[in-house]
Amino acid sequence: MAESPRKKVLVVDDESDVADLVAYNLKAKGFEVETVNDPTRSIAVARSFMPDLVVLDVMMPEINGTQICRMLRADPKLKQIPVVFLTAKVEENDRILGLEIGADDYVCKPFSTKELVLRIQNILRRSEGKGGEEPVKLIAGSIELDVDRHEVKVNGEVVELTATEFKLLHLLMERRGRVQTREHLLLNVWNYETEIETRTVDTHVRRLREKLGSEADWIETIRGVGYRLAERKVHESSA
């Protein structure tokens, strides 16, 4: 039986010792790793290497990590690649900004290499989606989620979601009508067991609603608890 290809991770950090440390620990877990210390080369290397995930420092000369993340999200070939920010910027506003522009996770320096590797493994596991013998489609109004194709359409048009946004919408649609607490979502979407990151859920829900456009109100906020996918939209219930 042929072995599955190794997952590829691109590490972008202007500090070579940090990049080398991350690369060493990822390689020890079986990943194929490419490191870039010159941030101006990051997009070109990403296009040639085509990683499964990018670990991205934020504070770098000439071009910073948030700019690179925006460039990744704007590139048709690279926009679906998960991004993990690795940075010394620890303020909550910095974390929220990172998530809002498309990062899938945010790890602060100094960091635990074991935790970083575990988070990367969890994100890649989510990105793979669920395989099955038959395609599975979930529908709510004009929202159609195709699990087999890992695709979401709104009003017949494909909507580009990150791996985390897709997993979040999938969970809400799969458990339609049932309230999902922030803690439950963190555990099932992000694989976290801590309450420290609850704002992460709010940020991703806000971004997901923006992408759903006219169908955003399918996702209901249950104040002080969490979110649920409505049984029916309010304006439809009276139709």
Protein described:
The protein is of the alpha/beta class and 239 residues long. The chain has two domains: 8-128, Response regulator (Rossmann fold, 3-Layer(aba) Sandwich); 137-237, Winged helix-like DNA-binding domain superfamily/Winged helix DNA-binding domain (Arc Repressor Mutant, subunit A, Orthogonal Bundle), CATH 1.10.10.10. The protein has nine helices and twelve strands. Strands 2-1-3-4-5 form a five-stranded parallel sheet, sandwiched between helices. A four-stranded antiparallel sheet has the order 6-7-8-9, with helices on one face. The model is unreliable at 130-134 and 235-239 (pLDDT under 50).
Task: Summarize the structure in short.
This protein has 239 residues and is α/β, with parallel strands linked by helices. Helix content is 40%, strand content 21%.
What's the layout of helices and strands?
Elements: E1 8-12, H1 16-28, E2 32-36, H2 42-49, E3 53-57, H3 65-74, E4 83-87, H4 92-100, E5 105-108, H5 113-128, E6 137-140, E7 143-146, E8 151-154, E9 157-159, H6 163-174, E10 180-181, H7 182-190, H8 198-212, E11 219-222, E12 226-229, H9 234-237
Helix pairs in contact: 1-5, 6-7, 6-8, 7-8
> What's the N-to-C terminus distance?
56 Å
Instruction: Provide the helix percentage.
Output: 40-55%
In the sheet with the most strands, the strands line up as: 2-1-3-4-5
How much strand content do the residues show?
15-25%
